[in-house]
Write a structure and sequence with these properties.
The complex is a heterodimer of chains A (about 230) and B (about 400).
Chain A lengths: L1 E14 L2 E14 L3 E5 L6 H8 L7 E6 L2 E2 L5 H11 E4 L11 H12 L3 H14 L15 H13 L5 E5 L7 H18 L2 E5 L3 H4 L4 E6 L2 E7 L3
Parallel strand pairs in A: 3-8, 3-9, 6-7, 7-8
Antiparallel strand pairs in A: 1-2, 1-4, 4-5, 9-10
Helix pairs in contact in A: 3-4, 3-5
Chain B lengths: L4 H12 L3 H39 L4 E5 L17 H6 L7 E13 L4 E9 L1 H7 L6 E4 L9 E5 H7 L6 E7 L5 E12 L4 H6 E5 H8 L7 E5 L7 H8 L6 E5 H4 L1 H39 L1 H9 L4 H31 L6 E2 L4 H6 L5 E2 L5 H28 L2 H5 L3
Parallel strand pairs in B: 3-8, 5-7
Antiparallel strand pairs in B: 1-9, 1-10, 2-3, 2-6, 2-9, 4-7, 5-8, 6-7, 11-12
Helix pairs in contact in B: 1-12, 2-10, 2-12, 2-14, 10-14, 12-14
The chains are: A alpha/beta (about 230), B alpha+beta (about 400).
C-alpha cells in the first residue's frame, strides 16, 4: 500500500518577469516504510516537494494523499494536527527555538501533543543520548555548535516516532562519524518501526543508505530508481 | 489545545525577557499609565466626595421630610406639624445617626447700612451640631445656646456685606402664614466661617422657638432633616422614614433634593471610565508596537512552531500569554506605585492656591484623595480587557503566516 501519492504536483514562483518551476507536474507513489533520498542540484525542487508533502506550502495544482487523506484539501488546523502526530521535520537550517534548552526543544513537539512531563523527559533524555548530546541537555541553541544543533533538530523530529520523517539536508553539518551514527538510527527506525523517510541531500554517502533514489531537475523527477542500500 | 499551560507560560516568560530593555520600557509605561489612572481617579473621587459632603452638609441631612408643596414654594405657608409618635419612633432607628426639626424660610436681613436676602434657619442648636454644624466654625462670639436663644448667628461674608459686627442689632423680616410681614430684631451673637462663601453670605441661624414665635406658626416646622450613616446609600433610610409619615408628606433623599449633586456622582463614574480608557489608548500604541516588534522578530520561530504542529489558535494564545504577563507586571508595579503615593496624602493636599475655583465647584481648599477598591478594580479591568483586545491584532497576524513563508524569513 502506498503511504504517499503525489499526483501532478505543480508549484510555480514568480520572480520578476520569469516564472520559476518549483514543482512541474510531479507524480510519485511512495510505499509505507520506504527509505528514500531526493537528490538534484540546488533549486531542483527537493525542498519544495518535501514542504508540499508536509503541508507547509500550498500547491498551485495537483493532489497529495498521505495514507488516503488528501493533504492539499486540509485546513490550517487539520494540517497542524497531521504534522504534529504523523510527520517529523528536519529542516535545512536547524530551526531551534532559541529560548528553550536542547532538551526543551526536543520535548516541544511532545508537549504540544500533550505527553506527560515524565514521559517527555524520559524520551528526550534517551534520544539526546542516542544522538551524542548527553550532558548538553540544558544548553540553549546559542551554546551549541552547528553540528550539535543539527542533532537536536534530528532528535526533535524523531523523538515522538512519527509515521513519516521529511529531512532536508539532515547531515549537512555532521562529520562522517556522526553522519554514520545518524543514518544508522534512521535506518533502524525505518526497519523496526516502519517509519517512512524522505531525505533531501547532496551527500553521496547519505544517498548510499537509501533503497530508492529520486533525482530532480527544474522541478521535475528525471530519474527514480531502486537500489540496494 | 493540548499544550500545557506551564509550557506556554514558560515560553511566554522567556520570550518576554529576550529584549529586556524593550520590556522594561513597556513595563514602565504601563505602570505610569496605571498609576495616573488610579491617582487621578483618587483625586477626582476625593473632590467629588468633598463636593457632595459639603452639599449634604448644607442641605443638611441625607433625607428630608417636608409638607408636599414645600419644595415648590418654600415659604412658611407650607409648613408641617412637628413629628408625631410614629415618626419619632422611626427617627430612633439604627438607620438614623442624627435628626433635627427646622424652620427654613426666605427672609430679608437688614443692618443700619445694608440689607440682604437670606435663608433664615430656626434651629435647635444641639440637633444642628449633631447634624453637621461645626461649633469650631464660629470665628467670633458663640453659637446659639438653645432653641429659645434670642440671638442670631451670621456668616463672615454677610457681616461684611451688611457692614455689621458681633453685638450689633439686625432686623429680620419674612412673611407669616397669612402673608403678613413678620419681623423681629436680633442681636448678632456669633459669626461663622464656612468652606463655601455662598453659605456665609446666604444662611443665618436663629433659635427655632424664637422664629416660630416671630412667624406665628406655633410648633409647626418647615422640615425634618435626617442624617444616615452613608450618603451613597440613602435609599433604605428614605423608605424607612417614608413608611412612618402620612402620604401627603414628601420624603426625599439628598440626590433628589439636590439633583445637581446627585448627578455629580453619576457623571463622576462615567468620567472616571472615560479617563481610564483615554489613558489606556495612549498606552495601547506602545503595547501594540512592543508586541508587533516581538512578533516580527520571531516570524521564523512562529513558522517553525506552526510547522511542528502548533495550531494557529495556540499561536494566538501564546502571544496573548506574553501580553497578559506584560500587563500583569505593569499593573502590579502601577498599583504599588499608586497606593504608595496616595496613602501618604491621606491628610489632604492643600489646594488653596486655587481655592476660588474649587469653591465655584462647591469643594473645599483641601483635597483628600479617596482610594476606592471599586476604582482599583475598574482601572485594572480596563487595562487587562483592553490590553488583551489590543494584543489580538499582533497575535492574529502571527497565526496567519504560512509556515514555509515564515520559515524563509531571516
Amino acid at each position: 500500500m502506498s503511504a504517499i501519492i503525489c499526483t501532478d504536483l505543480c508549484k510555480y514562483y514568480q520572480q520578476g518577469d520569469s516564472v520559476i518551476k518549483g514543482l512541474d507536474h510531479v507524480n510519485l507513489e511512495i510505499a509505507a516504510g520506504s527509505f528514500i533520498c531526493l537528490s538534484g542540484p540546488s533549486g531542483s525542487g527537493k525542498t519544495t516537494l518535501l514542504n508540499a508533502i508536509g503541508g507547509l506550502d500550498r500547491l498551485d495544482s495537483g493532489q497529495i494523499s498521505i495514507n488516503g487523506e488528501r493533504v492539499d484539501l486540509l485546513g490550517k488546523a487539520a494540517l497542524a494536527d497531521l504534522r504534529l502526530h504523523s510527520i517529523g521535520f528536519v529542516f535545512q537550517a536547524y530551526n531551534l527555538i532559541p529560548v528553550l534548552s536542547a532538551r526543551e526543544n526536543v520535548e516541544f513537539v511532545m508537549q504540544v501533543q500533550g505527553v506527560s512531563a515524565t514521559k517527555r523527559r524520559q524520551r528526550s533524555m534517551k534520544i539526546l543520548q542516542e544522538v551524542g548530546l548527553e550532558g548538553m541537555e540544558d544548553r540553549r541553541p546559542a551554546q551549541l555548535s552547528g553540528g550539535q544543533q543539527q542533532r537536536v533538530a534530528v532528535a526533535r523530529a524523531i523523538v515522538s516516532q512519527p509515521k513519516l520523517v521529511l529531512a532536508d539536508e539532515p547531515t549537512a553539518n555532521l562529520d562522517s562519524k556522526s553522519m554514520e551514527k545518524l543514518m544508522t538510527h534512521f535506518r533502524e527506525l525505518n526497519q523496526v518501526h516502519q517509519v517512512t523517510f524522505m531525505i533531501a541531500t547532496h551527500d553521496q554517502r547519505v544517498m548510499n543508505w537509501a533503497e530508492r533514489r529520486i533525482y530532480m531537475v527544474d522541478g521535475q523527477v528525471t530519474r527514480d530508481e531502486m537500489q540496494d542500500p | 489545545m493540548k499544550m500545557p499551560l506551564s509550557g506556554m507560560t514558560r515560553l511566554a516568560w522567556r520570550n518576554l525577557w529576550r529584549n529586556y530593555r524593550r520590556t522594561l520600557i513597556m513595563l514602565l509605561a504601563i505602570a505610569l499609565g496605571v498609576w495616573a489612572m488610579i491617582f487621578m481617579t483618587a483625586l477626582m473621587r476625593g473632590m467629588v466626595d468633598d463636593m457632595v459632603s459639603q452639599g449634604v452638609a448644607a442641605l443638611p441631612g441625607h433625607v428630608q421630610v417636608h409638607a408636599a408643596s414645600y419644595r415648590d414654594d418654600p415659604s412658611i405657608t407650607h409648613s408641617m406639624p412637628a413629628p408625631g409618635q410614629r415618626l419619632l419612633e422611626a427617627l430612633e432607628s439604627e438607620l438614623v445617626s442624627a435628626w433635627a426639626t427646622r424652620i427654613k424660610v426666605p427672609a430679608m436681613i437688614s443692618s443700619e447700612y445694608e440689607n440682604r436676602g437670606v435663608l433664615l434657619l430656626g434651629v435647635e442648636p444641639g440637633d444642628e451640631i449633631a447634624l453637621g454644624f461645626d461649633p469650631d466654625d464660629i470665628v467670633e462670639g458663640r453659637f446659639l445656646d438653645s432653641s429659645e436663644d434670642s440671638g442670631i448667628v451670621i456668616g463672615e461674608k454677610l457681616a461684611q456685606r451688611l457692614e455689621t459686627r458681633l453685638g450689633k442689632r439686625v432686623a429680620v423680616m419674612s412673611q407669616d402664614p397669612d402673608n403678613n410681614i413678620a419681623d423681629r430684631g436680633f442681636r448678632v451673637t456669633g459669626i461663622f466661617h464656612a468652606e463655601l462663601e455662598n453659605t456665609e453670605e446666604s444662611v443665618v441661624y436663629a433659635g427655632r422657638d424664637v422664629v416660630q414665635a416671630m412667624l406665628g406658626v406655633g410648633s409647626d416646622i418647615s422640615e425634618v432633616a435626617v442624617l444616615g450613616h452613608d450618603y451613597r446609600e440613602p435609599g433604605p433610610l428614605t423608605e424607612h422614614i417614608r413608611a412612618a409619615v402620612p402620604d401627603d408628606f414628601e420624603v426625599l433623599p439628598w440626590p433628589e433634593l439636590d439633583p445637581y449633586l446627585g448627578s455629580m456622582l453619576k457623571v463622576m463614574d462615567g468620567f472616571v471610565l472615560v479617563w481610564m480608557v483615554v489613558v489606556f489608548l495612549a498606552l495601547s500604541f506602545g503595547l501594540v508596537n512592543t508586541l508587533m516588534m516581538a512578533v516580527f522578530e520571531r516570524i521564523r520561530e512562529i513558522g517553525l512552531m506552526r510547522a511542528l504542529g502548533m495550531r494557529p489558535a495556540v499561536i494566538v494564545y501564546q502571544i496573548l500569554m506574553e501580553s497578559l504577563m506584560l500587563l500583569a507586571l505593569g499593573l502590579l508595579a502601577g498599583n504599588v506605585l499608586a497606593v504608595g503615593t496616595i496613602v501618604p496624602l491621606k491628610d489632604g493636599i492643600d489646594v488653596s492656591v486655587v481655592a476660588k475655583g474649587m469653591e465655584m465647584m462647591g469643594a473645599s481648599s483641601v483635597l483628600f484623595p479617596v482610594l476606592s477598591p471599586a476604582d482599583l478594580v475598574m482601572a485594572n479591568s480596563v487595562v487587562i480587557v483592553l490590553g488583551i483586545v489590543t494584543s489580538l491584532l499582533p497575535a492574529w497576524r502571527a497565526a496567519q503566516y504560512q509556515p514555509v513563508e515564515a520559515l524563509g524569513r531571516i
